[in-house]
Amino acid sequence: GAGVSQSPRYKVTKRGQDVALRCDPISGHVSLYWYRQALGQGPEFLTYFNYEAQQDKSGLPNDRFSAERPEGSISTLTIQRTEQRDSAMYRCASSPLSEKLFFGSGTQLSVL
Amino acid sequence: SQQGEEDPQALSIQEGENATMNCSYKTSINNLQWYRQNSGRGLVHLILIRSNEREKHSGRLRVTLDTSKKSSSLLITASRAADTASYFCAGGSGGSNYKLTFGKGTLLTVNP
After folding, report:
1. Do B48 and A100 touch (CB under 8 A)?
2. What is the pLDDT of residues A14-53, one digit of tens each?
3. Which residues in chain B have their CB less than 8 angstroms from residue A93's CB?
4. From CA B43, how far away is CA A52, in angstroms rounded?
5. How crowded is the C-beta side of A55, counted as CA atoms within 13 Å?
6. Percent of chain A, pLDDT > 90?
7. Residues A63-78: what's their mean pLDDT?
8. Is the bond preceding A8 in cis, omega lying within 30 degrees of 0?
9. Which of A96, A76, A97 minimizes the C-alpha distance to A11?
């Protein structure tokens, strides 16, 4: 596609539910990144992939958070047993192995 | 964790004036990037400066980097109302394990 696509755009869920956030990167981009952004803050690194390999997951807050990119293209960020503190904008970015990142519009997650 | 701290947190100027934003970072970097975020939208890459460069220009943008002081500045000349946005610096580090770590941002308001 023309840009990085994330879905859903908004997600409202109840505490304790699992959510899956999807990212469709720019075609051919090798690297895919997940960030979380709280209101008024900069994006905070969560994890990233080169092709299907998860290179770094040091930013995932705890073991309720996981991500996969099984075929080296679309990625899913899953949050299990959501908590109110998980509410934030979740941003995905891709890169053609250059240093510059291309961001999607994000998924706004609200946990009630 | 945040890599950088932008200064000031908020800046309000008149159209036609220049805007200067500063960024300090903590760890060693390969490059320093600046991104813009318009309200409610994704981040857009503006400019990248490598650790062995001191100054770079792109249109109305001028970025400097002082690795001895671990600081960078972004200058926007002849500002326009459309430049109103949040601006983030981001430090890129790692080789094969490349990661981009963002600061908290400067909110720039350009008044017409």
Report:
1. yes
2. 999 999 999 999 999 999 999 999 988 899 999 999 999 9
3. 43
4. 24
5. 18
6. 89
7. 97
8. yes
9. A76
For the cut 60, the answer to whether the pLDDT of residue B3 exceeds it is no
Residue B21, pLDDT > 90, answer yes
Measured distance CA(B71)–CA(B15) in Å, rounded: 27
Best of B100, B104, B106, B107 to disrupt the A interface (most A CBs within 10 Å) is B100
- Using CA atoms, how far residue B111 sits from A103, B84, B108, in Å, is 27, 8, 10
For residue B48, the chain A residue with the least C-alpha distance is A100
Please state, in angstroms and as integers, the Cα–Cα distance from residue B24 to each residue in A44, A47, A95, B1, following that order. 17, 23, 25, 14
The DSSP code sequence of B20-39 is EEEEEE-S--SEEEEEEE-T
For B43, residues 6+ apart whose C-beta sits below 8 A from its C-beta are A43, A91, A93, A101, A103, B35, B36, B37, B88
- Cα–Cα distance for residue pair A57/A37, rounded to 1 Å: 16
Tell me the shortest Cα–Cα distance from B41 to chain A, in angstroms.
6
H-state helical runs in chain A: none
Number of residues in chain A: 112
What pLDDT digit, counting tens, does each position of B33-85 carry? 999 999 868 899 999 999 999 999 999 999 999 999 999 999 999 999 999 99
Q: How far is B103 from chain A (nearest CA, A)?
A: 5
Give yes or no for a contact between A6 and A21, defined as CB atoms under 8 angstroms apart.
yes
